[in-house]
């Protein structure tokens, strides 16, 4: 349970001049903790394992995105309905994150992440043989629920185990794993779906997820700065979640996660419908290859983490939002090369923003980091689920122009939130 602030040791954060931006800590002082330091074998194993967890999570979660036009045709559903194959997963994932954060306090970080990855991979294999649209949606919802055990716990593990000076870079590499997984899942399904069908495409991604889960279990070092908590104390968890809303910076970071993720997913959800139609008529393989834009996200997330450590996270954060907004505007062009350029810029801006915001949540939440991460990721995946489906109604109303107008409004709100976080830090 919480102890009185006077009985606890406070720890300076990146914003030491604003005491209300820090939370009191009931864990050992930084000097007494055993961090994984850059350059050591354990550090490399941990970052590689978390890279694999990010790869598996995003490849399993987003492998259906390039298949949405196929689902719409094969199952006779609208574009907005086909987006449920993704939105249900991210929606259930968002709420499962709350339970995952609480369960990880008792079960442990490593065990919960492995069980989640293994279960989600099996669900993808089940989807590959699903006989009906409704069964596919039910299994995708279950898959999202299972994956809730990975993102918040992974961010928490990094914040607890990685030395503070290396956290930005390590978080950036984890987000790079997300980017690589998102790209690989989409490219694999798009290519195999064209050559064979969507069923073997999903099966291939499920097998990749199983391999990544096993590699993760083998590589990740046990936690050294985490002590399991016995039983389940609902009052404790509610108080821990509520405590983060007394930190004025954290709710703004949660809003940034919702808005930037919502914008990013909406672009990728409906770009496929635009590009498979006249005058572009892209094949599934060609559409899948557009997702190689994630390669730029891999570089951007890693670079943003390092830049944040060196020049300041509050400098890099709004720059990422502006790059995403510029990219969204560029996609309004009728030129295919410019549309692809715009998607690349959106991808770079999104991964820069998400990487830095994730690191800031870990830094500013000086205590109960798992609960702070779960709140950020709740907002993040709700953005994917809600905005990703709402974008379908804009698509039906006025096509791509309406979709981009919706996205630019969200990114404008995201920029205001990023600037407000920076202003709070300077006071």
CATH architecture verdict of the largest domain:
Up-down Bundle
Helix percentage range: over 70%
The level-1 CATH class of the largest domain: Mainly Alpha
- Radius of gyration, in Å, reads 20 Å
- Say which CATH homologous superfamily of the largest domain is assigned: MFS general substrate transporter like domains
Number of strands: 0
Q: What is the fold named in CATH at topology level of the largest domain?
A: Growth Hormone, Chain: A
Mean pLDDT, to the nearest integer, reads 78
What does the largest sheet look like?
A: none
Name the poorly predicted regions.
Answer: 1-31
Helix vs. strand class: mainly alpha
Q: Count the DSSP helices.
A: 16
- The general outline is globular
Strand content: under 5%
Name the features.
single chain, mainly alpha, Growth Hormone, Chain: A, 2 domains, 75% helix, globular, disordered N terminus
Question: What do you see in this structure?
Answer:
Residues 42-427 form the Major facilitator superfamily (MFS) profile domain. This is YNFM family putative membrane transporter. The chain crosses the membrane at residues 48-68, 80-100, 112-131, 137-159, 171-189, 201-220, 249-268, 288-307, 314-332, 338-362, 374-396, 402-425. It is found in: Cell membrane. By secondary structure, the chain is mainly α. The protein folds into two domains: 37-222, MFS general substrate transporter like domains (Growth Hormone, Chain: A, Up-down Bundle); 233-426, MFS general substrate transporter like domains (Growth Hormone, Chain: A, Up-down Bundle), CATH 1.20.1250.20. Helices cover 75% and strands 0% of the residues. Helix 13 packs antiparallel against helix 14 (313-330). The relative contact order is 0.16.
């Amino acid at each position: 349970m919480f102890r009185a602030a006077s009985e606890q040791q406070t720890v300076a954060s990146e914003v030491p001049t604003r005491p209300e931006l820090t939370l009191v800590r009931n864990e050992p002082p930084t000097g007494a903790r055993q961090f994984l330091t850059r350059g050591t074998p354990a550090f490399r194993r941990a970052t590689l394992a978390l890279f694999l967890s990010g790869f598996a999570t995003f490849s399993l979660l987003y492998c259906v995105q390039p298949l949405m036009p196929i689902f719409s045709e094969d199952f006779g559903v609208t574009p907005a309905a086909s987006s449920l194959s993704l939105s249900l997963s991210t929606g259930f994932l968002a709420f499962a994150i709350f339970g995952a954060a609480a369960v990880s306090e008792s079960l442990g970080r490593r065990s919960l992440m492995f069980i989640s990855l293994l279960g989600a991979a099996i669900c993808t294999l089940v989807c590959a043989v699903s006989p009906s649209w409704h069964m596919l949606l039910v299994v995708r919802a279950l898959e999202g629920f299972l994956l809730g055990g990975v993102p918040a716990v992974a961010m928490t593990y990094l914040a607890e185990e990685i030395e503070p000076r290396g956290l930005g870079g390590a978080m950036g590499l984890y987000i790079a794993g997300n980017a690589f997984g998102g790209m690989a899942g989409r490219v694999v399904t798009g290519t195999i779906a064209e050559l064979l069908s969507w069923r073997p495409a999903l099966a291939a991604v499920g097998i990749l997820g199983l391999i990544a889960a096993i590699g993760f279990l083998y590589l990740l070092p046990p936690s050294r700065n985490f002590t399991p908590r016995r039983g389940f104390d609902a009052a404790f968890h509610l108080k821990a979640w509520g405590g983060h809303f007394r930190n004025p910076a954290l709710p703004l970071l949660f809003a940034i996660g919702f808005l930037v993720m919502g914008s990013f997913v909406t672009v990728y959800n409906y770009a496929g419908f635009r590009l498979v139609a006249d005058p572009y008529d892209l094949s599934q393989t060609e559409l899948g290859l557009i997702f190689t834009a994630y390669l730029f996200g891999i570089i951007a997330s890693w670079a943003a983490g390092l830049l944040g450590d060196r020049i300041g996270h509050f400098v890099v954060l709004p720059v990422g939002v502006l790059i995403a907004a510029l990219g969204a505007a560029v996609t309004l062009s009728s030129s295919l090369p410019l549309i692809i350029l715009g998607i690349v810029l959106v991808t770079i801006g999104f991964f820069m923003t998400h990487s830095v915001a994730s690191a800031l949540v870990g830094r500013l939440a000086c205590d109960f980091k798992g609960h702070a991460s779960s709140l950020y990721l709740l907002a993040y995946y709700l953005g994917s689920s809600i905005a990703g489906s709402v974008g379908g109604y804009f698509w039906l109303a006025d096509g791509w122009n309406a979709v981009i107008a919706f996205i630019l409004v969200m990114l404008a709100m995201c920029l205001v939130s990023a600037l407000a976080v920076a202003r709070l830090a300077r006071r």
